[in-house]
Amino acid sequence: MVDNTATKNQLPNHQVFGVSIDVPPHTGSKCYDDDGRLKRTGTVWTASAHIITAVIGSGVLSLAWAVAQLGWVAGPTVMFLFSFVTYYTSTLLSACYRSGDSVTGKRNYTYMDAVQANLGGAKVKICGIVQYLNLIGVAIGYTIASAISMMAIKRSNCFHSSHGKDPCYVNSNPYMIAFGMVQIFFSQIPDFDQLWWLSLVAAVMSFTYSTIGLALGVAKVAETGKLMGSMTGISIGTVTQTQKIWRSFQALGDIAFAYSYSLILIEIQDTLKSPPAESKTMKNATLVSVSVTTLFYMLCGCMGYAAFGDLAPGNLLTGFGFFNPYWLLDIANAAIVIHLVGAFQKSAAERFPDCEFITKDFKFPIPFFGTYKLNRFRLIWRTIFVIITTVISMLLPFFNDVVGLLGALGFWPLTVYFPVEMYIAQKRIPKWSTRWLCLQILSVTCLIISIAAAAGSIAGVIIDLKSYKPFVTSY
Predict the structure, then answer these.
(1) Would you put residue 428 in left (φ > 0), alpha (ψ -120 to 50) or beta?
(2) What are the backbone angles phi and psi of residue 366, rounded to the nearest 5°?
(3) Could you give the CA distance from residue 365 to residue 371 in angstroms, rounded to a whole number?
(4) Under 8 Å CB-to-CB from 140, ≥6 apart: which residues?
(5) CA 474 → CA 70, 86, 399, 469, 471, distances in Å?
């Protein structure tokens, strides 16, 4: 799941729908690359680190539930297949970093630049719309996940103080409103999403709560001395046959969400030095990072399932599969909140259109703090954006369903379709050739999987809405 953004080694640029504007080249200088930007210094290891810290995020928390729906055979198998598809399509996308020659061709600095250079026309607008829809969905998902974690801290301490006698029901609305107010405040700070330490904090927090979840799963298995679960997943009786089918589809979306990082792959690749060709380095970095991530996901998902079997919670840390040690749960959930506060800003920060009326700053002196630059666009648009996503989160506070839906909606178009189509255009692969057919079969197969995952997630939302009253229900 994309929670962080690679540090971009490039000059400032104005973007609309994420398409960059070229800068004049500096030739014959040891300080600049062939495009006039400062020499890139990234290696296979820095790129791998960027990818790993970007991918491992809140999506890992739903993997135990996903494996529980699919079982010991299908669960790990599906996870491996998603990792393979992600790796393969990432190599296709990395080949599109340069237009034309893979060594001397024109660089594309963002995902949208690559779509513009290779596909153009209406597909650029479609890609932009998909990205913005994904942006809204991710913001909603972060709001829900943060609120649930804050609620979990409250309930954990309540359970501890009452020794389990109090059900400790908590309403999520105050926590979502609080998260939204924090986001409105941070969104008004100019370039807050560009602070160098923000990605570092996010990386540390994501590894903290992921590792705690894994460790508690291992401890639970060691305590009981047995592995829970079955070969075919959650048993009929615990759920109906129809529910099992919908849940299995939704599990596909949860797994897909955990692997989504294609939107920032080109930006990470833009940090790499050459020679060797950036695409070659990126291919190796993708192999390393996807392998490490898959191993970690397998451990988290499988150990969570082994610990709880059919009762594996939708969110490993907040589903109250663990009550003790409660202070460790509090640390993990606090790490989730800190991580997602920064991740929200990283993912939701918009590029301003190049229009003076919209982008003009008004300076206001603040005693002891210097000058604050007020921006109309930042004040109005970002505030409205946060309010809308917060209200939607309050209407549909279903973490697992939303994660599955986000995975379904983002997986096929952004991870598979556009990389495949760009690669076909870049390499001029003849229509109806064997290679073209294989790529199209891959794309259509992933489309069917995305549709099934979306259907399962929507079915989950419909089922949850039957027992949920907006703004009223407590958990």
Answers:
(1) left
(2) -120, 120
(3) 4
(4) 389, 392, 393, 396, 402
(5) 29, 38, 15, 9, 9
Please, how many CA atoms are within 13 Å of residue 303, restricted to the half-sphere of its CB? 23
* CB distance 147 to 397 below 8 Å: yes
Left (φ > 0), alpha (ψ -120 to 50) or beta: where does 351 sit? beta
Residues 424-450 as b or e (16 or more Cβ within 10 Å = b): bbbeebeeeeeeeeebeebbeebeebb
- As a whole number, the mean pLDDT across the chain is 80
**DSSP code for 324:** S
Q: Are 282 and 43 in contact (CB under 8 A)?
A: no
**68 near 309, Cβ under 8 Å?**
yes
> How many other CB atoms are there within 10 angstroms of residue 23's CB atom?
13
Spatial separation of the C-alpha atoms in residues 289 and 62, rounded to whole Å = 20
- Residue 432 three-state SS: coil
* Best CA proximity match to 402, nearest among 63, 64, 202, 144: 144
Q: Which two tokens stand for residue 349?
A: 């920060």
Q: Identify residue 251 by its one-letter amino acid code.
A: A
Q: 361-366 and 370-375 as β-strands: parallel, antiparallel, unpaired? A: antiparallel
User: Whose CA is closest to 233, among 64, 42, 444?
Assistant: 64
Q: What is the pLDDT of residues 287-305, one digit of tens each?
A: 998 998 899 899 888 888 9
Amino acid 291 reads S
424 Cβ neighbours under 8 A, 6+ residues apart: 436, 439
- Burial (CB < 10 A; 0-12, 13-18, 19+), residue 60, is buried
pLDDT in tens, 72-122: 999 999 999 999 999 999 999 998 888 877 777 788 888 888 888 888 888
> Whole-angstrom Cα distance, residue 46 to residue 385?
33
Cis peptide before 413 (omega within 30 of 0): no
Q: What does the pLDDT look like over 441-467, one tens digit per residue?
A: 999 999 999 999 999 999 988 888 887
CA distance 220 to 22: 55
Residue 269's nearest CA partner among 96, 426, 100, 94 is 94
Q: Are 293 and 52 in contact (CB under 8 A)?
A: yes
- List alpha helices for 309-395, DSSP H: 326-348, 356-359, 376-395
Containing 366, the helix (H) or strand (E) segment is strand 361-366
Extended beta strands in 82-218, E state: 98-99, 106-107
Please tell me the distance from the alpha carbon of residue 251 to that of residue 456, in angstroms, as a whole number: 8
Q: In 10 A of CB 293, how many CB atoms?
A: 23
* β-strand partners of 374: 362
CA–CA gap between residue 154 and residue 170 (Å, rounded): 8
How far apart, in whole angstroms, are the C-alpha atoms of residue 415 and residue 49? 20
